[in-house]
Amino acid sequence: MTRPTSTKEELITRLSSEAETNKGDRYTQVIRKQDADGDYEVHEYYTPSGEIGYQIIMYETKNKVEYGKSVSHGPEASNRTWDWLEVSEFTE
Fold first, then answer.
1. Which band of pLDDT confidence, cut at 50, 70 and 90, is reported for residue 78?
2. How many Å apart are CA 29 and CA 76, to the nearest integer?
3. Which of 12, 44, 58, 77 is in Cβ range 3.0-4.6 Å of 27 for a Cys bridge?
4. Which residues in 1-92 belong to E strands, given as ranges?
5. Contact 45/76 with Cβ under 8 angstroms?
6. Residue 18: what are its φ and ψ, rounded to 5°?
7. How far is CA 88 from CA 18, 36, 66, 91, 92, in A?
8. Cβ(15)–Cβ(38) under 8 Å?
């Protein structure tokens, strides 16, 4: 897949900033949403030891194939971050 547009990268940056700023005791979660900014969702997660993090998943459809990209922050960020993949590769 081609590289995402700068708009998608800007949205990831904005959502990350909002998640950190509004955190309080918990991160703000967004159920999958499609709006003028794009198609995305934000998940909060807890590790077994009680640490907290969040994951932003962006979606894009090209030639009838749905792709997703994840950017995660927190203790499991390296396992929850990936570049554009077909959605079927991470939902099975």
1. very high
2. 17
3. 44
4. 30-35, 38-46, 52-62, 65-73, 82-86
5. yes
6. -65, -40
7. 29, 25, 8, 5, 6
8. no
* pTM (predicted TM-score): 0.71
8: phi then psi, degrees, rounded to nearest 5: -65, -40
CA distance 37 to 27: 20
And the tokens for 12? 């990831």
| Torsion sign over Cα 79, 80, 85, 88 | positive
Instruction: Please state the rounded mean pLDDT for residues 4-19.
Output: 70
Tell me the two tokens of residue 63.
């030639």
Q: Token digits for 24?
A: 């309080």
